[in-house]
Amino acid sequence: MQTFKKYPDWRHVLGPNNPLMRTKSAHHFARKPIHADGSKWRNVKKFVREFCTESTIHGLRNIEAGKTLLERLWWLTVVVLSVVACGMLIQKVYHKWANNPVIVSYDDTATKVWTIPFPAITVCPEAKFKVDVMNFTEAFYQHFHSSRTLDKKSHDRLMAMLQICDDFFHIVLPYQERYPNSSLDVVALLNKISVDKSSTIIVCRKGTDMCRNQFFHTLTEDGVCFTYNGFSAQDMFNEGVLHNEYEYLTETNSATNWTLENGYAPGTPFTTHPLRASGYASRLRLNLASFKSNVEAHCAEEQGFKVVLHSPDEYPIPFAKYVLLSLDRDINIAIRPQILTTSKELASYSPARRQCYFSHERTLKFFRVYNQNNCELECLTNYTLAKCGCVKFSMPRSAGTRICSTAEQRCIIEARYGMLKALSQNRLNNDGLISECDCMSACSSIQYLTEITQSTYDSIQTVSLRLKPLLPQLIKPMESVTSSKVSVFFKGAEFLSTRRNELFGLTDFVANCGGILGLCLGISFVSLVELLYYCIVRPVQMARKSTGRNWQVVMVREKSGDQSFVWRDENQ
Questions:
Q1: Which residues neighbour 333 within 8 Å (Cβ) at sequence distance 6 or greater?
Q2: Residue 452: beta bridge partners?
Q3: What is the model's pTM?
Q4: C-alpha–C-alpha distance, residues 414 and 422, integer Å
Q5: Residue closest to 225 by CA, chosen among 300, 122, 308
Q6: Burial of 275 (0-12, 13-18, 19+ CB in 10 A)
Q7: If DSSP codes are grouped into helix, strand and coil, which group holds residue 284?
Q8: Cis omega (within 30 of 0) for bond into 16
Q9: What pLDDT is attached to residue 58?
Q10: What is the mean pLDDT of residues 460-471?
Q11: E-state strands within 468-528
Q12: For the CA atoms of 216, 218, 223, 226, what is the dihedral angle to 10 degrees?
């Protein structure tokens, strides 16, 4: 009895009905069982031995079955090196899955040209002004190189004209210092002095149809241009975000049956907007003209016409990409469309991994349709506004945003090249770009690649030979005009488009990891379940078993005749 006096409150060990509980000294007995020394370590060894013996992972049984310490260390080293090799190989597989999950390949079937729209064509004449309204060269020399001064009306027109002339007038400081730093109604002034459509586009013919009336005014950094087969302002811009001071686009036809991502809707009639390509033999022929009196080498070095081919949902940016049609030249532009689509399997990937945006993933403030061209124009607008505190008149802007004055055109030019430089440096260094300028391509895009051939063109001689016997009165006016021709057509009736597909998906990643684990360690799916069992389930079971032991007190008679009590685990 004296054995338990040092253990307080042992009622839960013996039970309330045990005779010992009725003794007066019951409170001197132990409260909890006494564990044998080293029992926890023996349990750990027992657990490890059980895991090594029962596991299906290669090498663990050899560790447990090793007869000498050296043999066990050898197999332990082999297993550790195999685990390290698995980790390194799986890391490489993961990097491949994370960084190169997409492949661009050709479609299995050819695409017909009549399933895609004919390109939008924007024409910007380099002879920008009507000399009978205002002579740019005379007004410039009178203002900067003579003692005479221009009246306010002529002065404002000159300042407006300078905003669409070459960069030369805004880089040479002696000129820039004399520009007034005040805002003008630039668009209204340019509409009065710019050449009009009727004197620029003489003839437009697509197949047997005349299409001159299908050109509409478009406002660009080159002033007033003329666009064929483009979007209207309602289709191009978001509603309620632009000012209402002037129009950017005067196109009236609405694009209701076509999107670049989904193409033409089923059941759409062949004649729709934007216009389809009707085959490689169907050419768009343009006769473009400039009055010789309007042609001058002062405002612009290049002479002729800038021709921009772009997707109908893109806003034209002449300074970025154009074909120069020189005066008295005849050029043929053969188009080879390059279409890139993206499989729906990649929709679950982040835009950064697939390197493109679906239409619902990226919204622009001004433009209704996301594409790389519109995003870059909006980015340039935001960058210019942040740097200069104003924007160019041709840039989309909200009400209240100030138009840059003529004196601030240098800042606009610096902002343009500064933004391009900053974007190039960031992409080169793989730095994260601000979201407004992270202009990745759209997941569905179209580009019109061109092959150009040209020859000389004598319009007066051609008209004289063909029309002089019938309409002799036309010959005299033609002598005051210089003309050029352009013919736009598809190179073939069908072409191979490209498509983004999944190169290395989740299934491939799991399969590669399984192959590596099976090669190095013999691990299968069952082995992974087995690991979970031994890491979670089995330890919990052992813990519950050890804390839930049943103990009993056993009386032992010693040789001296004394009696003592000892603990005995009923589970042993």
A1: 307, 309, 323, 450, 451, 452, 486, 487, 488, 489
A2: 333
A3: 0.76
A4: 12
A5: 122
A6: buried
A7: strand
A8: no
A9: 75
A10: 73
A11: 481-490, 494-495, 498-502
A12: -40
The tokens of 31 are what? 């409260």
The one-letter code for the residue type at 341 is T
Torsion sign over Cα 311, 345, 238, 386: negative
User: Number of helices (H) and strands (E), helices first, in the chain?
Assistant: 19, 19
Closest to 136 measured CA to CA, from 154, 152, 123: 154
pLDDT tens track for 10-41:
444 445 555 554 544 444 444 445 444 455 66
Phi and psi (nearest 5°) for 325? -100, 110
What are the DSSP calls for 288-321, one per residue? EEEEGGG--TTT-SS-SEEEEEE-TTSPP-TTTS
SS3 499: strand
What gap in Å lies between CA 416 and CA 429, rounded to an integer? 20
In whole angstroms, give the CA distance from residue 286 to residue 226.
Answer: 12
Beta-bridged to residue 332, according to DSSP, are: 453, 487
Instruction: Retrieve residue 363's tokens.
Output: 């919204």
Cβ contact 351:443 at 8 Å: no
DSSP state of 117: B
Which residues are within 8 A (CB) of 305 and not within 5 positions of it... i.e. 6 or more apart? 123, 124, 125, 126, 200, 288, 290, 324, 325, 484, 486
Residue among 156, 225, 222, 160 nearest 186 (CA):
160
Q: How far lies 266's CA from each of 21, 160, 178, 269, 534, in Å? A: 92, 47, 59, 9, 59
At residue 214, what is the residue type? Q
Question: What confidence tens digit (pLDDT) does each residue in 405-443 have?
Answer: 999 999 999 999 988 888 777 777 765 444 557 788 999
The H or E element spanning position 378 is: helix 372-388
N-to-C CA span, the chain: 24
